[in-house]
Amino acid sequence: MARVYLLIKTESGMEEKVYQALKGLDYVSRVDIVTGPYDVIAIFEADSLSKIEDYILNKVRKSEGIRETTTLIALTA
Amino acid sequence: MARVYLLIKTESGMEEKVYQALKGLDYVSRVDIVTGPYDVIAIFEADSLSKIEDYILNKVRKSEGIRETTTLIALTA
Amino acid sequence: MARVYLLIKTESGMEEKVYQALKGLDYVSRVDIVTGPYDVIAIFEADSLSKIEDYILNKVRKSEGIRETTTLIALTA
Amino acid sequence: MARVYLLIKTESGMEEKVYQALKGLDYVSRVDIVTGPYDVIAIFEADSLSKIEDYILNKVRKSEGIRETTTLIALTA
Amino acid sequence: MARVYLLIKTESGMEEKVYQALKGLDYVSRVDIVTGPYDVIAIFEADSLSKIEDYILNKVRKSEGIRETTTLIALTA
Amino acid sequence: MARVYLLIKTESGMEEKVYQALKGLDYVSRVDIVTGPYDVIAIFEADSLSKIEDYILNKVRKSEGIRETTTLIALTA
Amino acid sequence: MARVYLLIKTESGMEEKVYQALKGLDYVSRVDIVTGPYDVIAIFEADSLSKIEDYILNKVRKSEGIRETTTLIALTA
Amino acid sequence: MARVYLLIKTESGMEEKVYQALKGLDYVSRVDIVTGPYDVIAIFEADSLSKIEDYILNKVRKSEGIRETTTLIALTA
């Protein structure tokens, strides 16, 4: 099993929109709007890391309102 | 009582505008244009944390000229 | 319900030790050693935010091997 | 009047100690332990900026438990 | 005498333009395009800090091509 | 021989486009889309550092989709 | 094939020592002391990502003089 | 002519000591204790970049009290 945490900075004021969009995506086991230096955190889980990486690159990062992402890959999934 | 410090990076040249807009908002006990890695700092105070969080999310972060925010929640308010 | 994500930078080489220590703590629903700019991520869940905050301040941050933490409080828990 | 916000990263587990030490210092109008990428925030106020700067440099930064500080000088004090 | 170092991130590809614009400004004793996490550094010198701060806020930060600035005020000018 | 590592943050969703564009450029010995706090990394090699620096400044940084770059110059090339 | 870029901040003055130690390690295809916000960069290559991750976690991060690391996993290896 | 700006984070409370030590070093045209996210900034000038880089690596970074440095090489020296 593979797990990836995606830390997202949104365009200002777009947190809710990004949050709703991510909730409906594949492999997403949890999404939260958060305080601190990031705006949204999403957790992706799938049976292979490359599935998640492709999906983030080709689908998630193209979602409206996302300005910057930092990817944390779980080594203990 | 709840207190939140909002560290704001504005669009370049928009410090004064953001500063003036924040001064007029609810729960805002102080605003300053600052030097350093941030442009404006605002202090919010209310009787509940969720009031402040909702207000920041749905009102403040939608103000014109705000590019990025970092939220610091006071644990000793 | 309250949820907090704790992004942890450990002393170099102490990831495994911090990971094992956090796994045994109260309110911890998940811990992972991760890649990227952080070393470990822990998710705390409890019926009140102040319980988690006190616990992080008085227990977690005093664990051996933790160098720096960034706290993300979920606004959509 | 001059005002300076000091964002402090403490040695892990030393937040309470730094918080208590700062509360007793000159020119300090407020101190809070906070969540997010910093651990403590202190607000200094005095009739001149150089008084505050000297004090931070020669007194505050030598307090036990302080690892890193970021100084924000208010331009609208 | 007051001295301020302004670390500037420009819009990508705008380094030369920002560099040329800053060279012609008041109080600027040196400007350089640089490598590393910033794109341009400018040093301002004047007989008072507030003159420089006002100028940066009302003139420099409104120059085209500037995305983000970090201000370092010299305590040993 | 001179070697420079260019750490690139792209506009969200533009990783593939930037990656393809950089692959075709002069002096580029390797390009990768990556996880973590950056999106793309490119390695430049040439017989002189100034050749690479000029090229990055006048060609690479003007490529579409590049938001921010951090330059690491190899001291052991 | 898997490739990982490791961005390393060393204890101050320990760059050369870390550089020499990393040069002799398994999977390391290149190491450089660099300028900018990091001190050393190392590139690891192996036939599987987990081999590299284990090695970084259990061997590299325990090397003397390493203070902080940021891992970038190549998605286009 | 080559010019390098060195942004320095010192051990907390060691600013004055680092400042005095750097003032006496070769190639140093200016040093300042500063506010903001760094503690000291030093400007090095010499007839070749490699002279400055060697000196920073083998002499400056081994000075007592220096925790972290970020090197900005001037492309317009």
TrEMBL record, chains A, B, C, D, E, F, G, H:
What superkingdom does the record give? Archaea
Q: Which SUPFAM superfamilies match?
A: Dimeric alpha+beta barrel
Span of the secretion signal?
none
Q: Where are the transmembrane segments?
A: none
Identify the metabolic or biological route this protein is part of: Amino-acid biosynthesis
Q: Where is the Transcription regulator AsnC/Lrp ligand binding domain?
A: 7-75
Q: Which Gene3D superfamilies match?
A: 3.30.70.920
Task: Quote the protein name from its UniProt record.
Answer: Transcriptional regulator, AsnC family
> What species does this protein belong to?
Ignicoccus hospitalis (strain KIN4/I / DSM 18386 / JCM 14125)
